[in-house]
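Quick one:
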Amino acid sequence: KNSSTGGTDATNGTALSTKDITNKVADSVVEIVTESVSYSFYGQAVSQGAGSGVIIDKAGYIVTNHHVIENAKSIKVTLKNGNEYTAKLIGSDSDKDVALLKIEPKSDDNLTAAVFGDSGKLAVGDKAVAIGNPLGELGGTVTDGIISALDREVTIDNNSMNLLQTNAAINPGNSGGGLFDGQGNLIGIVVAKASSSDSNESVEGLGFAIPINDTIDIYKQLIDHGKVLRPYIGIEGIDVTQSIAERYNLTEGIYIKAIQNSSPASETDLKAGDIIVKADGTSIKTMDELNKIKNNKNIGDNLELEVIRSGKNVKVTIKLAEQP
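Output:
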């Protein structure tokens, strides 16, 4: 299928042409330029950064990546019509790499807000259109392609994230821009092109986006609280792989290296040296697996862990508290 003539999508039947999608949604994508100041022996240096964002509410709320605005002293937003604003940072979440900005629109700027799609209904092969500000000076650049994979575990800055993969061309500066489906609905927030882990070479045809369904709860919390409230346990753990287990005669699981003071874990019978093998009845072997179970819970919920201690299975119930 020629991508410019559309095709069929899992979500809503026929896909629009890239041109029609662009006409429908391009006004909802903004350019972001940041200034941050660093101090050194030689005085202060001002550096500029660039990225993209997507208007999600006509009142002026704009979603982007946390890494686009991290450490920014000032944030400028330019709309597609060229109007420029100073944006206020409402809140930011480094774990999911999402940030929320707010501009105060002028009366004659009738802002276009993106319409949310359902990233849970996407299928591999569905059309995808990325709109952003690559390299910081090519605002409103449109690229198209397909959804290449749905649930890729990608590590960016030591942070493991589950992302949509697309072959629509994505470059630095696209970060925070929108990934749209064949109907022009927002299905993801673009995370700039990932490099291959072994070398710093860029990989062509590999772009990633945070699924929009994963961001909705985050920006609602940022609007309500200015931060994301997350439950935490309060342990430092090491994943015991099969080779470590065999070498040290341990059970596979999570070896508790330390327990943080005044944490939920410190209120229980958990001890350094325990090996966590189950959480809420599910067998787990890594901190990632434990965090996935924990992050589906609310502050104040109980989490039941099963640990191996001196060869015995011990059950411990933790009451999750708010991450400080």
